From TrEMBL, chain A:
A GO CC term attached to the entry: nucleus
UniProt keyword terms in alphabetical order: Nucleus, Transcription, Transcription regulation
Organism: Microthlaspi erraticum
Keyword Nucleus part of the UniProt annotation: yes
Domain (IBH1-like N-terminal): residue spans on this chain: 18-76
Pfam families according to UniProt: IBH1_N
Main location: nucleus
GO BP terms, alphabetized: regulation of DNA-templated transcription
Lineage top rank: taxon: Eukaryota
Subcellular location per the Swiss-Prot or TrEMBL entry: Nucleus
Protein name listed in UniProt: IBH1-like N-terminal domain-containing protein
Annotated InterPro entries: bHLH_AtIBH1-like, IBH1-like, IBH1_N
Automatic annotation (TrEMBL), chain B:
CDD domains: bHLH_AtBPE_like (cd18919)
Cellular component, GO, one term: nucleus
Lineage: Eukaryota, Viridiplantae, Streptophyta, Embryophyta, Tracheophyta
Superkingdom of this protein's organism: Eukaryota
Protein name: BHLH domain-containing protein
Length: 156, 280
């Protein structure tokens, strides 16, 4: 259903898939923790946010690096017992960049971008740009759909 | 002043084409007077021609020295690659004097710097010609006769080879790729087209992403309120068809407004189903 084969400019993130996944996870959350459960509001907000990101990653499909990183992060947060106490140190572009201090200004900005885009630390810079473009598209789509949901579902 | 005169006489005796050298030699003298960059540029060009004309037997020497000099210049050529990033690949294939000239100009700057550091004696005018390839201290005697011309010729070759260096080629290709992707990013982000400069564009991108992420957080807070306060019938099955009509319509309208799709019968079906479900 999602069209990941196209290039970056023509690739349109799928609103429907995202909305479907997001609503499913919302209803799951609602059935799992009803409103009188002892969960705090912050936890529920965090869960909803995580559900939004995960469904966005699912809508984007598994071919994008950022979506895979998001799903991996979500999976590691779901079962925290299995998680390693210290994250395994990968040789990432971020750490490699930070090793040599004489990086130009753009590379420093790209490092900050790597912190923002999920899974960005392992990307080479041009790949990072590509993933960032797709990530921004998906994020704006996500914001629009969530806005729609809030507008439509809020009690009049 | 004395060595130029000696050289001039010797070359005029040796070759008819030595008038180039007679043109050349006043220039280092003027160079010692520090009259300008042009004078530093001209001798190099003349030197290369004179070498090609006069010393065909010298080529093996130049070829022998070429490797060493390329190694020497590759050191500070790697430093130069950042400055040459806007320069296209034309200079690496061209062996004509045009690339030689523009490379000479950058070399001329260095020569002038050396002239500025040295005192303005006669040897100071001779030494900057060969100082890029060797220290010039050991060949002080040979510098009076011929050695500068081959070095300048080698110098051109080395600078040319620096452009075709595989590292700088790969670096240039990488930068082109990055800037291409960056322009694609600029098209996505609203109001980012007018910003000039990669760092500023990246800052704008980062700000945009952060604002979007903050928006998502805010909306999830809102949704949490909605989700906890709403009746149990809002998300009974997590299906799109069970959405309220206005939400449904909002999502679809936005989709149609943003990217008009040709034919999606599946979608129409679901929409009809949703409306039907809602109306019953």
């Amino acid at each position: 259903m999602a069209s990941q084969d196209k290039s970056i400019n023509t690739d349109v993130p799928e609103k429907d898939v995202f909305a479907l996944h997001f609503l499913q996870s919302l209803s799951n959350l609602k059935t799992q923790n009803p409103s009188n459960s002892p969960d705090k509001t912050n936890d529920r907000v965090k869960k909803i946010k995580m559900a939004a990101y995960v469904s966005m990653a699912r809508a984007a499909g598994g071919r994008r690096l950022w979506s895979r990183a998001l799903l991996r992060r979500a999976a590691s947060e779901n079962n925290k017992i299995v998680r390693f106490p210290r994250r395994k140190r990968r040789v990432t572009w971020l750490s490699r960049r930070r090793c040599n201090r004489r990086a130009p200004v753009e590379e420093k900005a790209a490092d900050r971008l790597r912190d923002l885009v999920p899974g960005g630390g392992e990307m080479e810079t041009s790949k990072l740009m590509k993933e960032t473009a797709h990530y921004i598209k998906c994020l704006s789509m996500q914001v629009k759909v969530m806005q729609c949901l809030v507008d439509g579902l809020s009690p009049k | 002043m004395d060595p130029p005169l000696v050289n001039d006489s010797s070359f005029s005796a040796a070759n008819p084409s030595s008038y180039t050298l007679s043109e050349i030699w006043p220039f280092p003298v003027n160079d010692a007077v520090r009259s300008g960059l042009r004078l530093a540029v001209n001798p190099g060009r003349n030197f290369t021609r004179s070498v090609l004309v006069e010393h065909p037997g010298n080529k093996d020497v130049s070829a022998a020295e070429e490797s060493t000099v390329t190694d020497l210049t590759a050191g500070w050529g790697g430093r130069k690659t950042r400055d040459l990033n806007s320069e296209d690949d034309s200079s690496k294939m061209v062996s004509s004097s045009s690339s030689g000239n523009e490379l000479k100009e950058s070399g001329g700057d260095k020569k002038r710097k050396m002239c500025g550091s040295e005192s303005g004696n006669g040897e100071g005018s001779v030494r900057p010609e060969g100082e890029t390839s060797s220290g010039g201290g050991s060949k002080a005697n040979e510098q009076k006769n011929k050695p500068e011309p081959p070095k300048d010729y080698i110098h051109v070759r080395a600078r040319r080879g620096q452009a075709t260096d595989r590292h700088s080629l790969a670096e240039r290709a990488r930068r082109e790729k990055i800037s291409e992707k960056m322009t694609a990013l600029q098209d996505i982000i609203p109001g980012c087209n007018k910003i000039i400069g990669k760092a500023l564009v990246l800052d704008e991108i980062i700000n945009y992403i952060q604002s979007l992420q903050r928006q998502v957080e805010f909306l999830s807070m809102k949704l949490e309120v909605v989700n906890s306060s709403a009746a149990t019938g809002v998300f009974p099955s997590g299906d799109l068809g069970t959405l309220p009509i206005d939400v449904h319509r909002n999502i679809y309208e936005q989709q149609e407004a943003n990217e008009p799709r040709g034919s999606h019968p599946e979608w129409l079906h679901m929409q009809v189903d949703g409306n039907f479900n809602r109306s019953t």
